[in-house]
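Progress note, sequence design subtask.
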């Protein structure tokens, strides 16, 4: 049996009630990581924040910050490591199990009683909360849940988040989508022994006083602006396609993220689950070496060699643009010539030359790439970028613009994975969905101008592949 102690903190970070036997060092640490009044995102809404962080004693703190009668409270639990291990070191598995048992609702009711009590308390003493006995457990990897989240977010989007998390001390998550399901599956993509290094809060403002590894800020634009202005911390958006001004089809830098991308694309969740049961890795720093080993053991070494890091576009100019498309031209000089005619930086363009906004053009190509990799927002965004580009030029230039955009879109679509080997059914479906969107754009372009014969042939080649 595992004994779990409880506590309740008020909005001034003072203990309103707690179980006997909590170490003083743990109490100080729980206060340091807790929220003050105003720290809860969207303070006038019935929102909550789930929080997880380590304690000096070797235990862990799992807590829920919520609002009650316009005041903020935190109900927390001191979790022994052996209990968390029974839940495969996945805090959300434990959180949801306790929610089914009614524990979190009970904590809210106790808080309400403390708020309305009429009997004065002795100075320096607080009411005692009972110590709980908790049993249960869960598998190291929830395979069906992983498949559902991959279907929702797309493989590329999911592993990009994993890659961002592994290479940064803290990561801000922005977006109206509930991040609990995303974080729950994120733990499934890590070895069990490493998971306790991932501290998080799902609805508190960022503070250097409580250095959570993941901080969810919802749709709070002011908080996002404050973080972007005052701190050098990556912000991962759940609703936006990665900015093409910073990167073209975001490269995966961490080898473990590359490994999980291969596992998910090849639908090897079962094999990963079998590995996770026996894996004894206890540090995130050891994951790159472990990934190299698993690539070989799961027979994915060939696929690993095919994973490439797309070119980073730190500055959008003529040089970087023609590098993106040079592979689809017979010679480098022709690639330069094609882009120079469209780039706003083209120096030799005459008055009849089509001139496009370079960042928007790159956004269009990046969007095609994101759609191929399963980003669920990309197909819709394709329509917007295509429309922006075609409407930004003069009517007499639209023929050339439509021809170029649609041809480049199909070429970009084909270049992403030119070898049908080692492709999962999910990835093939993503490519088909993207091609369907290109066909819709083709129809839109056809209403504007007749398309050239060579453009139609390029489309046919893409469909045949």
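Output:
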């Amino acid at each position: 049996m595992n004994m779990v102690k409880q506590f309740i903190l008020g909005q001034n970070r003072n203990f309103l009630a707690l179980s006997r036997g909590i170490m003083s060092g743990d109490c100080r640490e729980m206060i340091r990581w807790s929220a003050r009044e105003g720290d809860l995102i969207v303070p006038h809404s019935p929102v909550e924040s789930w929080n997880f962080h380590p304690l000096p004693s070797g235990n862990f703190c799992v807590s829920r910050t919520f609002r009650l009668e316009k005041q903020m409270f935190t109900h927390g639990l001191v979790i022994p490591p052996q209990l968390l291990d029974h839940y495969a070191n996945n805090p959300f598995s434990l959180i949801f199990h306790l929610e089914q048992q009614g524990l979190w609702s009970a904590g809210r009711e106790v808080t309400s009683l403390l708020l309305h009590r009429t009997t004065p308390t002795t100075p320096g003493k607080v009411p005692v909360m009972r110590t709980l006995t908790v049993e249960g457990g869960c598998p190291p990897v929830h395979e069906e849940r992983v498949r559902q989240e991959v279907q929702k977010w797309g493989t590329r989007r999911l592993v990009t988040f994993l890659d961002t998390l592994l290479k940064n001390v803290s990561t801000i998550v922005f977006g109206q989508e509930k991040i609990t399901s995303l974080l729950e599956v994120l733990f499934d993509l890590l070895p069990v022994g490493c998971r306790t290094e991932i501290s998080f809060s799902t609805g508190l403002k960022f503070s250097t006083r409580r250095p959570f590894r993941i901080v969810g800020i919802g749709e709070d634009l002011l908080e996002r602006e404050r973080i972007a202005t005052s701190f050098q911390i990556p912000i991962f958006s759940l609703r936006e396609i990665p900015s093409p001004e910073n990167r073209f089809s975001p490269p995966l830098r961490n080898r473990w993220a590359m490994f999980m991308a291969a596992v998910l694309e090849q639908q090897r969740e079962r094999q990963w689950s079998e590995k996770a049961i026996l894996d004894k890795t206890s540090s995130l720093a050891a994951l790159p070496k472990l990934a190299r080993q698993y690539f070989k053991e799961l027979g994915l070494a060939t696929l690993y060699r095919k994973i490439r890091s797309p070119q980073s576009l730190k500055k959008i100019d003529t040089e970087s643009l023609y590098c993106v498309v040079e592979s689809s031209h017979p010679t480098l000089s022709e690639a330069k010539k094609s882009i120079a005619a469209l780039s706003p930086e083209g120096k030799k363009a005459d008055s009849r030359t089509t001139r496009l906004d370079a960042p928007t053009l790159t956004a269009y190509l990046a969007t095609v790439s994101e759609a191929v990799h399963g980003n669920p927002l990309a197909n819709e965004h394709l329509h917007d970028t295509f429309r922006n580009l075609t409407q930004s030029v003069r009517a007499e230039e639209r023929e050339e613009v439509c021809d170029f955009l649609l041809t480049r879109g199909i070429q970009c679509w084909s270049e992403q994975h030119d070898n049908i080997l080692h492709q999962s059914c999910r990835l093939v479906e993503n490519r088909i969905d993207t091609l369907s969107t290109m066909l819709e754009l083709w129809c839109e372009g056809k209403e504007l101008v007749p398309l050239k014969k060579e453009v139609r042939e390029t489309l046919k080649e893409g469909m045949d592949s």
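The radius of gyration is 26 Å. Work on this subtask will continue into the next period as scheduled.
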